[in-house]
Amino acid sequence: MTKIFARLMKDESGATAIEYGLIAALISVALIAGASALGGSLNNQFTGLSKKMNIGADGTTKTAPTN
How far is 41 from 28, CA to CA, in rounded Å? Predict the structure, then answer.
């Protein structure tokens, strides 16, 4: 019985799989955080650009024509 327990304690194949799983989870969290930050930044850039394009040369805000 002692030999079986000692052999089980030396087996590290399960630990390697868990380590790979933890690394994959960490990379996923980093990618999600980066994409969220980039998305917010792009939204701010396009909103600012849209506001600048709607302001005319005389400083008034232009609106889309209605039919």
Answer: 20
Q: What is the pTM of this model?
A: 0.52
Per-residue DSSP letter, 59: S
Which tens digit of pLDDT belongs to each residue from 2-46?
887 777 677 766 778 888 999 999 999 999 999 999 998 999 999
- Do residues 61 and 55 touch, judged by C-beta distance below 8 A? yes
Alpha helices of 1-67 — where are they, by DSSP H? 2-10, 13-54
Structure tokens at 9: 């304690």
Task: For residues 8 and 65, give the distance between their C-alpha atoms in angstroms, rounded to a whole number.
Answer: 76
Residues 49, 43: contact at Cβ < 8 Å?
Answer: no
